[in-house]
Amino acid sequence: MELSGSKAISWANSMSPTLNFPRTFSMFRFKKVRILGASSGNDSGESQKENEMVVSITGATGFIGKRLVQRLQSDNHRVRVLTRSRPKALTIFPVKDFPRIEIAEEPEWKNYIQGSTAVVNLAGTPISQRWSPEIKKDIKNSRVKVTSKVVELINNSPDELRPKVLISSTAVGFYGTSETREFDEQSPPGNDYLAEVCREWESAALRVHKDVRLVQTRTGIVLGKEGGALAKMIPLFMMFAGGPLGSGNQWFSWIHVDDMVNLIYEAISSPSYRGVINCTAPNPVRLSEMCSVLGSVLGRPSWLPVPDVAIKAVLGEGACVVLEGQKVVPKKANELGFPFKYPYVRDALRAIMSS
Q1: Does this model's pTM top 0.90?
Q2: What are residue 174's DSSP bridge partners?
Q3: CB 265 within 8 A of CB 277
Q4: How do residues 182-231 score in pLDDT, each as one tens digit?
Q5: Where is 198: in which H helix or E strand?
Q6: What is the rounded CA–CA span in Å between residue 46 and residue 33?
């Protein structure tokens, strides 16, 4: 006897009333699908693509920007470098080493900002130089104008292509200077030139579209061998010519470059990061202590202070950057539970010099 289709199933059920074959077959089919799905090689790829961020960065060729690009690439995110010079960017990010990076000069920024997950704005002329009227103008314009342009491009993007996050750099110079006061994110602005620059810089970022999550990173002195203040101090100490600048009593609100990059990374990916965040280590030090610890780590004395008059002769009005300081604490980062890898300057300097 040959049976097929529904007749075969009916016969089987009559022979074994404890089984319901259509339901049993259905169960087996369901299990098979799940097993095939679990072993599919596409799932991990699809999951990775869902978690992929596209991050556009101004100032990517700078000290912090380069490290941020490296971190994003190591986590398989796509990076769009917004630059004024493609040739310069290509020398820093050669295609063979950075295959997932796109480079765009200023006329192309619009097309690259659209469709980004986030924009990180780090652009700005270095302030540690002699301030002529032209340099002071450039210090301000390089920050305010670029920020205004980025905000305009974000705001003019179609809703479906508008970045969800803007991380816009600013600086602890916002608070002015003091040897006695402590500053957190709620402290009022100062009234000197750098405070004025920071106020205008931040005001430009605040004009971003209301649906864009804005994080303003007020950055302290970033420590690393590849750039910033420490890169200029190390050679002097190695030549036995290191020591505090000026009185040495000025506050030195610092942060290790790895913590700086990690803070930006967290600000991009975590919705709880919003508004102003001080990017400084939890334990600022006076400059005399910083120099003493650096000398100890390098095995060199910190015995040759540089008098105010000598610094002013070299830097003019710009000497205030190194002769005056502020004690800034990362209250918001601590409240958010950010895990500082280097909360103490000695540990930070040891790690930097051993890398």
Answers
A1: no
A2: none
A3: no
A4: 999 999 999 999 999 999 999 999 999 999 999 999 999 999 999 888 88
A5: helix 193-205
A6: 18
